[in-house]
Amino acid sequence: MATQNKLSTIETIKTASRGLRGSIVESLDDEITGAIREDDQAVIKFHGMYQQDDRDRREERAEKKLDRLYTFMIRLRLPGGFVTPLQWIATQHIAGEHATGIIKITSRQTLQLHGLIKSRIKPTIQAFNAAKLDSIATCGDINRNVLCSSHPNESPIHKEVFAYADKISELLMPKTKAYYEIWLDGEKIVDRKEEEDPLYQDRYMPRKFKIAIAIPPNNDVDVFANDIGLIAVIENNQLIGFNISIGGGLATTHGNPDTYARLGTVIGFTKGEENTLKAVYEILTIQRDYGNRSDRKLSRLKYTVDKLGVETYKTELEKRIGFKLEPAKTYTFKTRVDHFGWQADANGLNNYTILVENGRVTDEAGLPLKTALLEIAKTGVANFRFTCTQNLILSDIATENKAVVQEILERFGIIKHTEGSSNIRKNAMACVALPTCPLALAEAQRYLPSLITKIEGIVEKYELTEEGMVIRMTGCPNGCARPYLAEIGFVGTAPGKYNLHLGGDRQGERLNKVYKENLDELAILDTIDLLFKDYSSERMKEETFGDYSIRKNWVSA
Amino acid sequence: MLTKEKQLQVQALVKEATKEELAWINGYLMGLIGDSLTAVEENATPLATVAKKITIAYGTETGNSKKLATELASKAKKKMIIAKLVSLDQYRFADLQKETNFLTIISTQGEGEPPPAAKKFYDHIHQNGFKLDKLNFGVLALGDTSYPLFCKAGEDVDQQLEKLGGKRILPIQKCDVEYDEDADKWFDEVLDQLFSSKQTTVAPVIAIPVKYNAGTKPAGKTIYEGTVLSHINLNDRGSNKETWHLEIAAENLTYEAGDSIGILPKNDPETVNAILALVSLSASDHTAYKNEQISFLDLLTNKLNIANLSEKVIQRYATVVDATIAETKLDLLGLLQRYPTKGIEQFEAALQVLIAQSPRLYTVSSSPVSQESEVHITVARDIFYVEQEKKYGRCSDFLSKLQTNESISFFVQKNKRFKLPETDKDIIMIGPGTGIAAFRSFLLERDALGATGKNWLFFGEQHFESDFLYQTEIQNWHATGVLTKVQVAFSRDQQEKIYVQHKMLEHGAELFEWLDAGAYVYICGKKDPMSTDVENCLLEIIELHGNKTSEEAKTYFENIKAAHRYHKDVY
Ligand code: SRM
Ligand SMILES: Cc1cc2nc3c(=O)[nH]c(=O)nc-3n(C[C@H](O)[C@H](O)[C@H](O)COP(=O)(O)OP(=O)(O)OC[C@H]3O[C@@H](n4cnc5c(N)ncnc54)[C@H](O)[C@@H]3O)c2cc1C
Ligand SMILES: Cc1cc2nc3c(=O)[nH]c(=O)nc-3n(C[C@H](O)[C@H](O)[C@H](O)COP(=O)(O)O)c2cc1C
Ligand code: SF4
Q1: Are B486 and A66 a contacting pair at CB < 8 A?
Q2: Interface confidence (ipTM) of the complex
Q3: How far is CA B333 from the centre of its chain?
Q4: What pTM value is reported for the model?
C-alpha cells in the first residue's frame, strides 16, 4: 500500500474535516474576504463547488487595494445529464439572480454556474434544492457525476440503461449529512455514528473517480476515459449486463514523465443489476485501499491498476465480490457523435439536438439561445438532456407538440445555427479555461470558435467539408475536453501556444500523440493546411483523418 | 519639580523613543494639559463676594474657542477677577440682561455661520424686542482668512449686541488660525479697560474689513506646494461611486493623524473658457480685482466660486444686469447664458458680486509616523443633479482629475478634537464611506507605534465587490492583529439595506463591554444621516446592554463625552 509514504496534505484535511464540514461555516461568516479558508477550499469541492477568481481582473483590483474577485463555481449532480423543463427554468432564474447568468453545459453532461459570491452560495443551493437539484459530490475525491449515453434513440431500452446512472450515483453517495447541515439548515448531527461511511470511511477516495455508461455502437460518453466504463450488452432488446472497463483517465502534466493518459481496460462482463453494482462498488474499495495517497499526480485509478497489474486487480476484485467475472462479450463502437436536429426514438417520441458551442448557454447577438430555451421550457413539452460534447437535447417531445418547439427554434435562429454549422464545428469541444479556471495556461472555450472559423477555410479549400474530424482544445494538459481522444487535439502550454496532437480515431478507442509543440495560431494554420492538403489528395475511401495520420506516421500508433 | 523617580521614569521613556514618538508624546502631553485645565475651570464656582467680575462665553465647533476661553479665564483668576466660563449652548439667555461684563469668544463655521453650539444664542440675540443697556461686551472672533467670510459669525454678534444697547469695551478682535497672541493682547486691554481706575467708555467702532486676496497665501497659515505621487480610484468597475485615493508629497510637512487638509479648487477649464468666449474676452485680458491687476483667466480659474452660487449671489447678479431671476440653482455660466451682461463693465461688476472660492477640507488618511513628508486623502467625487443634469462637486471633481506629478497647494487644518488616545487605550472606529480616511490614518499610526490598545473598526459602503475601500490593507491589519475586530456593512448586496449601525447593534453586547471598559469612540464621515443614526444606535446599545433607562443611558453617554472618549469628524 502507498500509505507508508507521507500522506498528501489533502488527505489530512479530509480526515480532519468531521464528515466534510471543515470550518466552512466560519469561512462563510468572515465578512472581509470573498474567499474561504485554505483547507475549506478542499472540503467545499465535495459539496460541488470550486473557489475561483477572475484572473483577468487581478492586476487592476490589486492596484485599487481591492482583494481578488473571488467567486465560486457550482456544479450540479445530474446522472446521465437530465433535467425537467421546470428544473431548467429554475436553473436559468438562479443563474440570473446569483451567478453570471451564463449556464455552462460540461463535458460530463452536467451544468455549472460561475461567479457566485460567497454570500450567494447558500441561497443558490437552497433554490436548487427547492427544484430537487443538488451539487453533492460533483467535485472532490469521490465518485463524480455518472455519465450515460444521452440520446433516447441510442436504444429502444435506453430508459432501462439510463436508470443505472441514477442507481450508481445513489450507491456511491457519501453518507455525511454535512451538505444538508451547512447549506440547507438541516439539524446538526450530534452522534456522527449515524453517518458512518463504509465505502468512503473518513478518507474518501485518493482522487476523483469517474464512471460512464455507453450504449454501443455510439461512444458519445468517451467510455474509455473513465475510471470505470460500463458498456451495455444488449441482446435482442434485453439488457443482459455490462462489459466493465477500468483505469481510464486522460490527465497528464507537462514535464512529468510519470503521468500519462490511459484508456480503460475491459476486464470482463457482469450479468444483471446486483452483480454489476457490486462489482462497481468493490472496484472503488480497492482503489480506496490501494490508491496512492501521497502523490496526487499519481493517485488516479489508472496508476493503481498499472501498479498492481490488471490481473491482480481483477483477482482482488473477484475476491471482494465473491464471484468470477465472465469473459467480456464482443462489442463494437462505430461512432462518437451527437445526433443533431430532429430524431425520433423507438417510443415514437421526438428529440432535437441543439449545437451549443462549448456548452455556453447565453444570449448572443443573432443567437438568443437562453431566451429560446426558456420559452421552450415554459411550454413544458420537452425535457432537457445534456451530451458529453456539451450539447443539448430537447427530448421526449410528443409528436403533436413538435410544431410548437420547431416554431420557437426557428424564430430564434437556433435551427439555422445548428444545422447550418460545419461538421467540424459540430464535433468540436473546448474546456472552460480562462478566465475562471485557475489551472489554465492558455485560452480554450473563448478562443476555439474563432480558430474553427479559420480552419473551416482550409477545410473548404481542400473540399473536406463532408469530413467531421473531431477537434478538441484545452487550456492545459488536464484534458477536460478530452483532447487526447480527438483526431486533432490542441493542448495549451502558454498564452497563445498549443501542442498539436494527431492520430486519435473517430470513435474514441485510440489516444492521439503530440505531433508538434508550442504552436501559435499562424503555425497551427500553416501546419493544418499542409496536413489537409496531403490528406485530401492521398486518403483512401472512408479513411478518417485520424487513421490517415497514423498511416502516414505523422505520429506512431 | 519632578520627584527623583518620576524623573527617572520620564528619562527611561524618552531614551528609547524615536523622533516621531517624541513628537507624539509631546503633542499628547499638550493635549493632557489642555484637558485638565478645562476640567478644573468648568467646575470652579466663582466666589460671590468680589467686585471684579466677567463672563466668558464661548461658541466652538472644533474646540479652539473653548481652549482659548479657558486659558483667558484662568488668567483672569490669577488677577483676582471672577471669571465665569460658560459654553454658549449651556448659557441661560435670561442672564443676558443681568450681565455687566460679557465677553464672547466665537468661531465661524460653514460658510460664515456660527458654530452649531452657538446657533441658539446667535438666533436669540438676533430677535430684537429686548434691551441690554447694562451690558458691556466684547467679541473675540476666531476664524480663518482662507475662508472668504472671515470671522463673519463674530462680526454679526458684535453688531447685534450693540444694536441691543450694549456698550463695546473694545472693538471686535478677529483672529486668524494663530490666534493666541492677538487674543492675549486684546484680553489684557479689555481687562484694564474694565478694571483700571479711570474707566472710559469707548466709542463704537466699525470693524475694519480685512484685506483678503482669495487664493493667495492666507495670513498665518503654511501653504504647502505638494506633488501628487499617486492617484487611484478605489472603486471597482460597475460601482456607483468614485473614491479617489491621493498621495501627496510636500517638503517639511507637519500634521497629525486626525487632521484635515484644506484645498482651493481650480474651476473647470472648459467652463472658464466657455465664459470668456461668451463675453468675448481673451485669456490674457486683465482686470482689477480687490485692488490688484489680474487676468480674467486667473481670476475665473483660481479666485472665484463660479460653480455653486448661493441664492444671495444670484440675486446680487440680478441687480447688476437688472433682470428678475427666479432660478436658485445656477452657476455663473448658466447665468451669463440666460441673463447676459451688457458690455465688459457690467461683466466686471458681475464678477465683483461673486464670493471668493473657499477651501474644502479632506481628512488625512495617512500618518506622519509612517508616511513622513507625505499626506494621503480619500476623496469621494461628489455627484448631484440639477434638473436631471449630472453635475460634479467642484473640488472633488478637480481632485479626481488630477494626474500624478501634477502639483497641488494645500494647508493643514488641525483638528485638536480628533486625536488618538494613549497607545494602550482601546478605540472603536465608526467610519463608513470616506469616513474610513481618518481610521486608515489612525491604524497606520497605531501600527507604526506598536500601540497595545485594541482597535475595532466599523466600515460600510454600497457593494462588497466594488466599494470595499482599502480592503487589502484592512485585511492585513486584521491578519496581523492591529485590527482586533472589524465589521463591514454593505447596504446594497441584499434585499434589505444594512448599514454600520445595524452591525453595531448586532455586536451590541460586546460593544458595550468595550465602552464600559473605557474604550474611546470615533465617528468619521457624512454628518447626516450617518452620524446621527450612529449616535442614536450607541444610546440604544447602552440602554439595552447596560440595562439602563433611556435617561440613564443619556447620562452614561454624556459622561463618556465629558471624559473626552467620544470624538466626531463629520461633514
Ligand atoms: C467543466 C469541465 C470542462 C468543460 O468545459 O466541460 C472541467 C473543468 C475543470 N476541471 Fe476538469 N473539467 C471537466 C471534465 C474533465 C475531464 C473530462 C471527463 O471527465 O470526461 C477530464 C479528463 C478525464 C480525467 O479525469 O482524466 C478532467 C480532468 C481534470 C483534471 C485532471 C485530473 C487528473 O487526473 O489529474 C483537473 C485537475 C485536478 O483535478 O487536479 C481538472 C480540474 C478542473 C477544474 C475544476 C479546475 C480546478 O481544479 O480548479 C476546471 C473548472 C473550470 C471552470 O472554471 O469551470 N479536470 N476534467 C468538465 C466538467 C466535468 C463535470 O461536469 O464533472
Ligand atoms: C472637517 C471636514 C472633513 C472632510 N473630509 C472629507 C474626506 O475625507 N473626504 C471627502 O470626500 N470629503 C470630505 N469632506 C467634504 C469636502 O470638504 C467637500 O465638502 C466635498 O468634497 C464636496 O465639495 P465639492 O467642492 O466637491 O462640492 P461643492 O462644489 O462644494 O458642492 C457641494 C454640494 O453643493 C451643492 N451644489 C454645488 N454646486 C451646485 C449647483 N451648481 N447647483 C446646485 N447645487 C449645487 C450640491 O449639493 C453639492 O453636493 C470634509 C469636510 C469637512 C468639513
Ligand atoms: C468646515 C469649516 C468651515 C469654516 N468656515 C469658516 C468661515 O466661513 N470663515 C472663517 O473665518 N473661518 C472658518 N472656519 C475656520 C474656523 O473658524 C477656525 O478653524 C476656528 O479656529 C475654529 O474655532 P473653534 O474650534 O472654536 O470652532 C471654518 C472651519 C471649518 C472646519
Ligand atoms: S483542461 Fe485545464 S484549463 Fe481546461 S478546464 Fe481543465 S483544468 Fe482548466
Answers
A1: no
A2: 0.77
A3: 30
A4: 0.77
